[in-house]
Amino acid sequence: MADSDIAKEMKQFGIREPDVEETFARSSGPGGQHVNKVSTAVTLRHLPTGISVTVQDSRSQAVNRKLARERLLDAIENAREEQRMAEVAKREKERRRKSPRPAALKRRILESKRRRAELKKQRTKIKLD
């Protein structure tokens, strides 16, 4: 993705640059002396949602910054999608809960309750005079 594509996508999601906190640290892994001396690991944190991503894939800080923005966008998109799915599931559950029972099922339930009541009536204590 080009930088302009990332900027457009950030705008589309309503993510403003001041809402993103960017920190740098020294990477670990391959790269030799370069990664030991230069802060190439990039951590981005979206302040409103608290979503955070860390990238240290490349020896280049610029490449890691680009990758971090892409991954942050993906993470925010996934979080929003999960939230939408949870809302849909909640609405569906409420709809199912409120929908009336089919007549046949209602009759079976009532018949079962009547049988149970008869059984319980037979348990009454016998009075001896």
Sheet-strand content, in percent, reads: 5-15%
Helix content: 55-70%
Secondary-structure-based class equals: alpha+beta
Described by the principal axes of the CA atoms, the overall outline is elongated
Strand-helix topology:
Elements: H1 3-13, E1 20-25, H2 33-37, E2 41-46, E3 51-55, H3 61-98, H4 103-121
Antiparallel strand pairs: 1-2, 2-3
Description:
- This protein has 129 residues and is α+β, with helices and mostly antiparallel strands.
- It is built from four helices and three strands.
- Strands 1-2-3 form a three-stranded antiparallel sheet, covered by helices on one side.
- Helix 1 packs parallel to helix 3 (61-98).
- The radius of gyration is 30 Å and the shape is elongated.
Summary, kept brief:
57% of the residues lie in helices and 13% in strands. The chain has 4 helices and 3 strands; from the N terminus they run H-E-H-E-E-H-H.
Structure keywords:
single chain, 129 residues, alpha+beta, three-stranded antiparallel beta sheet, 4 helices, 3 strands, elongated
